[in-house]
Amino acid sequence: MKSVLLLGQSNMAGRGFLHEVKPIYNENIFMLRNGRWQMMAEPIHFDRAVAGVGPAASFAQAWCKANKNKQIGLIPCAEGGSSIDEWNIEGTLFRHAINEAKFAMENSELIAILWHQGESDSHKGQYKNYYEKLHEIVNSFRKELGALKVPFILGGLGDYLGKSAFGLSCAEYEFINQELLRYAENNDNCYFVTGEKLYSNPDGIHINAESQRRFGIRYFEAYQTKSNVIRPLDNETEAAKVYCEKEQTFTEKRYIVLEQFTLGKLPLEEVMEFLK
Question: What is the pLDDT of residue 57?
């Protein structure tokens, strides 16, 4: 099985409202939970009770479409609200992510690291030393995981920031984006993915569910082409719809039925009828 490490703050963990998009169920996509690979279900992260849709599910779905009958596992390690300083190599978040990734790599091959972080550093001139801090973090992940050539994909901040509600404080998001792009251009096996024309929840800071689906497609495009994605993809809306509305297998349908029953949304009689 292949695996992908997920790093950053809340927009990687996911805050898109679950009810706004069709759920993704795929028996070939897994997530690491309690030390075991479980079939993926959103929210993939559970850093907060409000966790929701992030970019990882549609990334994995796109990967599966390009790699028929292959399996991929997601390693959720993002933490809402975390600054880049909290990802320093002596800190808890870095150490936890290293431990989770090494555990996952006992029976999977790490093929990508997805990063989305920067909202917490988009004010008071913190962008001025963002590049140097990111450089130490990226190189330390590579060294610790033996992942010198694994694509490290950097997601840009949304251009809705700095305009309303909680996003008002992110007035310097464009400078963070410049540093992320500069880092990708200056370092091998690093790629930048634009956050242009993504849309937010009413809070003005978190990427909404539909945009997260498209964002995951952009991450996959950068991974697949080994190049920066500096503008929205022409076909990303349609691609997200196609990738996320595939016909479900019996295993996937069974998972959904049992999930709905456990949540009290389906009577036992219907479950037993399905399982006949």
Answer: 98
Average pLDDT score over residue span 195-200? 98
**What is the SS3 assignment for 163?**
coil
User: Beta strands 36-39 and 29-33: pairing type?
Assistant: antiparallel
CA 189 to chain centre: 18
DSSP H/E element including 123:
none
Phi-psi region of 33 (alpha: psi -120 to 50; beta: other; left: phi over 0): beta
Q: Token match 């399905």: residue?
A: 274
* Residues whose CB is less than 8 angstroms from the CB of residue 138 and which lie 6 or more positions away in sequence, other chains included: 152, 183, 187, 190
Alpha carbons 1 and 71: distance in angstroms, whole number: 5
User: In whole angstroms, what is the distance from residue 154 CA to residue 190 CA?
Assistant: 7
Is 32's pLDDT higher than 90?
yes
Q: Between the CA of residue 198 and those of 189, 194, 201, 216, what are the distances in Å?
A: 25, 9, 10, 11
Does the structure show a pLDDT above 90 at 245?
no
